[in-house]
Structure formats: C-alpha cells, structure tokens
UniProtKB/TrEMBL annotation:
Annotated gene: tsf
Summary of the function given for this chain in its UniProt record: Associates with the EF-Tu.GDP complex and induces the exchange of GDP to GTP. It remains bound to the aminoacyl-tRNA.EF-Tu.GTP complex up to the GTP hydrolysis stage on the ribosome.
Ligase keyword on record: no
SUPFAM superfamilies assigned to the protein according to its UniProt record, in alphabetical order: Elongation factor Ts (EF-Ts), dimerisation domain, UBA-like
Top-level taxon in the UniProt lineage: Bacteria
Family: Belongs to the EF-Ts family.
Single annotated GO MF: translation elongation factor activity
Signal peptide: none
Protein name: Elongation factor Ts
Pfam families assigned to the protein according to its UniProt record, in alphabetical order: EF_TS
Length: 307
C-alpha cells in the first residue's frame, strides 16, 4: 500500500474542499490514487464537482492579443519558476512578443511553433530565443501552450489578475458595436470567474454525462439507503441537471444579474441592439493550471549551503 503523506492530504483538501480526516480516509481507501480519492469523496457527498482537480501553483503569465480588425486572436501561457520573474518587465515583454508570434503563426502544435523563425530576428528560431531568454533571466522558462482563433464573426479577449487568467471568446453577431463588445467582455469575465467547460449542453460528451451519473447514483444511495431505485433515479436527474448548468456557459446564472442566465442576458442584449448574438467557442487559460510548484525548504537549503 502506498504511504499517505501530509502533502497528499493537503493537496486533496485543496482540490475538493473536504475535511482533513475525510481526505486521509479517501487516500487510504484508494491506495493514494488522487483521482480515485476525489471520486471517493464525491460519492460520499463530501466533495463538490465544481472544485478543480489540479493545483494552480506554477508561476508565469497568460497573455492575449487581438488583431486590429478583430478577426483573429492569440492566447499563450509562458511559465517561470518564480513570481518574482513573472513580474519582471523583461519577462513580460518577452511574453508579449510570444503572443505576437502566435497571432502571426500558422503552426498547429508546439513542435512546429518552436521550430519557426522568430519574427524579430529570422536568423533564430522560437526555441533558440527562449533558450537565450533563460540564460539572460537566469531561471527556467517554458512556453507551455497557445491557441489561436480566426473568425468571420468577432473575438474578444479578457485578462484577469494581471495575467493570471486569460480568456478568448468567439461569437457571431448580426450587429457589432460597442454595446455588443461590452456584452461579450462581460461574458468573458464570467468565463474567467466561473470556469465553464462548454458553451452549451449539446457539446457535453455522452461518456462524461454517464460518468457523472454513476458518481451521483452512488452518492444518492449512500445518503438514502432506504429509498427505492425509482426515487433515486429522480434525485439523480435533478442533481445532474444542476451540475451540468454549472459546466455550461449559457446555462450559468449571469454574474452581474442572478435573475438571468448567460443565454437570457445575450437574448436581452440582442433585442436592444437589433441583431442576434451567438457564442461559438471560448478558450480559458489559468497560469499553472494542473502544474505543481516546486516547494523549496528554505531552512534546509541554507543548512546545505553552510555545509
């Protein structure tokens, strides 16, 4: 059986919001498997589905850039080892250059992107410029991911927390004016705040729905062992609908007016401007999402140096 460490318990607690002892029991019951432990806690009704499975820990920046005509946009995440470097003007300038490179690029994956000629100096590749930046800044850095949207409609960007979270939102709009852009910016802020997974319900894969249904079934039976299966099934339908509303952007309660869903808010704006607005896709990057920061024991490091 795997040894359950205090660090594992802490990580599971951060991921699920469950109590320390419950996390310890879940890890013991699943032989230290973090994903299974999350499911174990959910089945017991001790963890929320909306909690993100993955610690947000690595440093760096997310940067977005929209073309002048508003028809294409880029988003990139560049990681650094420390927050100190992430706030460094040279690092921030480099990340802005990477975003500009992505906007002009036709690369479909990271390997192709890294092999491209650097726009500011065609004698170097993107990978070579990254290496030189690492040498100058003196800290390991990584272009972790990028995405580009090209559209016949409109694309809006939003950056939260000085580059901690970035969002691109693509929509089709029969009218494109300041009111429409402001509405889409509001929805982009919603994406940053509430982390939806899909634009609308029919985008959700069937296997995801089946998996969630199974977890909710076990959870409901654990909470109501005496209730007949027919009642349990009805309970599951209600719970699943509530959960899927949190995952789907258009079904979410609109953050600026809880009486409206995002879909109803956009319907309202569409009527006001005299043209339909339809959301197509979004991209949301959060710095360090799913990465674990290297934890330095400062006292141990000092003792090591002294020896």
């Amino acid at each position: 059986m795997a040894a359950i460490t205090a660090g594992m318990v802490k990580e599971l607690r951060e991921m699920t919001g469950a109590g320390m002892m419950d996390c310890k029991k879940a890890l013991a019951a699943t032989d230290g498997d973090m994903e299974k432990a999350v499911e174990f806690l959910r089945e017991k009704g001790l963890a929320a589905a909306s909690k993100k499975a993955g610690r947000i820990a690595a440093e760096g920046l997310v940067k977005t850039l929209v073309s002048e005509d508003g028809k294409s946009a880029a988003i990139v995440e560049v990681n650094s080892e420390t927050d100190f470097v992430a706030k460094n003007a040279q690092f921030q300038g480099y990340v802005a250059d990477v975003a500009a490179q992505v906007l002009a690029s036709s690369a479909q994956d990271m390997d192709a992107f890294m092999a491209e000629a650097w726009a500011k100096d065609a004698s170097l590749t993107v990978a070579q410029v990254l290496s030189s930046q690492i040498a100058v800044i003196g800290e390991n850095m990584n272009i972790r991911r990028f995405e580009k949207i090209t559209t016949d409609g409109v694309v809006i960007d939003y950056i939260h927390g000085g580059g901690r979270i970035g969002v691109l939102l693509e929509a089709s709009a029969e009218v494109v004016n300041d009111d429409v852009k402001e509405a889409l910016k509001n929805v982009a802020m919603q994406i940053a705040a509430l982390t939806p997974k899909y634009v609308k319900r029919d985008e959700i894969p069937q296997e995801f729905v089946e998996h969630e249904t199974e977890i909710l079934k076990v959870q409901a039976k654990n909470e109501n062992p005496d209730k007949p299966d027919a009642i349990i099934e009805k309970m599951i339908v209600g719970r699943l609908n509530k959960e899927l509303k949190e995952f789907c952007l258009l079904d979410q309660a609109y953050v600026k007016d809880g009486d409206l869903t995002v879909a109803k808010y956009l319907e309202q704006v569409s009527k006001e401007v005299g043209g339909k607005i339809e959301l197509k896709k979004f991209v949301r990057f959060e710095t360090g999402e799913g990465l674990e920061k290297k934890e330095e024991d400062f006292a141990a490091e000092v003792a090591k140096q002294m020896q």
